[in-house]
Structures are given as C-alpha cells and as structure tokens.
Amino acid sequence: MRRLLLAAVIATAVVLSGCSTTVTGSPAPTGAGTDSGGAAPITDPVAWTDKVCCSLLPLQQALSTTPRVDQNDPTATVKALSDFLGKSEGAIDQAVSGLDAAGASPVHGGDDVVTKIKSTLTTVRTSFDQAKTAIDKIDPSNPTSLITALPQAVAPLQDLSKLKDPTTDLQANPELDAAAAKAPNCQALKKSG
Q1: Which in 18, 74, 83, 109 has the greatest CB count within 10 A?
Q2: What one-character-per-residue DSSP string does 130-152 give?
Q3: Alpha carbons 63 and 25: distance in angstroms, whole number
C-alpha cells in the first residue's frame, strides 16, 4: 500500500512539475484593453510582456512546491495532495486574472497567445479540481479504498502531459520573443523554471 501511495504521489509531482515547465516558458501577452489600473493601454512590448510574466510567477511558485509525502502516514499524504491541488487552483485563478489585467497586447498576435495560455490554464485547473474532488473523498484509513481510489483520483492529472505547450506561438513571434528576453519577470520565470 505504501509503495502505491508513494508511486501515485511521485506520478502527480512529475506531471505537475512538467506542467510548471510548460507554463513557466510563457512570457506572453494578454487581452483586456487597459492595464490593471484602468489607465491607458501599455504600448511598450517589453513592459507589457513583463506584466504578463509577472502574473505567472505566483503560479510557477505554487507548482514548484510539491506535496510532502509521508509513507507512514497516508492521511497526511492525502491531505498534502489535496492542499497542494487547492493552492494550485487558487494560483491558476490568480494567473488568469493577472493575464486579463495586463491589457491588450501592443504586439500583433499577442492576444491570441494569451488566449491559448488562458485556455491551457483552464484545462489544468479543471484537471486539478477533478483530482482534488476525488482525493477529498478518499478514506486513507481504509487500505483497499486508498489502493484503488488514489490512482483513479490522480488519473486526470496524467492527461496534462499531453497538452500542447502554449508558449510555442510566443516563441514563434519574433517581437514577443525579443520582448520576453528583455523583461525581468520573464527572465525570472526562465531561471526558476
């Protein structure tokens, strides 16, 4: 039972860290029209891209903090998984809000890139929510339930590895790619990702 629990947690951590890497490379634009204060739209591609990357930093941090596994305490491990997924869902919501608050892209194609990033984040959040809901129903004191329910609970997370990297379009846009190379928050994402 302990090996199965550990394997499920490790699989979850691997899937989630892969997801973090995908999101981490996203120094992409957004599409709201004005900056977060309701001021004039940002016209500098570097400033705008930096703001977009800034919105993704808390998400990257949340995803890089893997749940603590205690092979001798299934209850604590299940709780840690649930807490991790819940915290990550909140960070995804914050990232999407930050992408919206960055405003419209001053670069042609930037809004489309942000739309794809937000779509990917929504898919990830849905998978996290499904896994968390299933994990919260597990009775860790029942070995049979734990052995069968935990792998089923983390199954939605395994599909995340099949998601297309939404930053491919960002990197394909020379102006956005150049702006990301100069934006401090985008560089912070690269360094920690």
Answers
A1: 74
A2: HHHHHHHT--TT-HHHHHHHHHH
A3: 14
Amino acid at 27: P
Q: How far apart are CA 149 and CA 120, in angstroms?
A: 26
Nearby residues of 133 by Cβ (< 8 Å), 6 or more positions away? none
Nearest partner of 28 among 191, 192, 175, judged by Cα? 175
Closest CA to 177 of 28, 48, 55: 28
As a whole number of angstroms, the distance between CA 45 and CA 90 comes to: 28
Percent of the chain that is helix, strand, coil (3-state, to 5)? 75, 0, 25
Q: How many C-beta atoms lie closer than 10 Å to residue 161's C-beta?
A: 11
Distance CA 32, CA 40 (A): 11
Pure H helices in 69-109: 74-101
CA within 13 Å, CB half, 127? 20
pTM: 0.76
Query: Consecutive 10-residue runs of the chain (193 residues): their mean pLDDT?
Result: 41 38 34 48 89 87 82 86 92 92 92 89 91 92 83 83 68 86 86 67
- Output Rg (C-alpha) for the chain, integer angstroms: 18
- Nearest partner of 120 among 23, 12, 18, judged by Cα: 23
Structure-token pair, residue 186? 């985008």
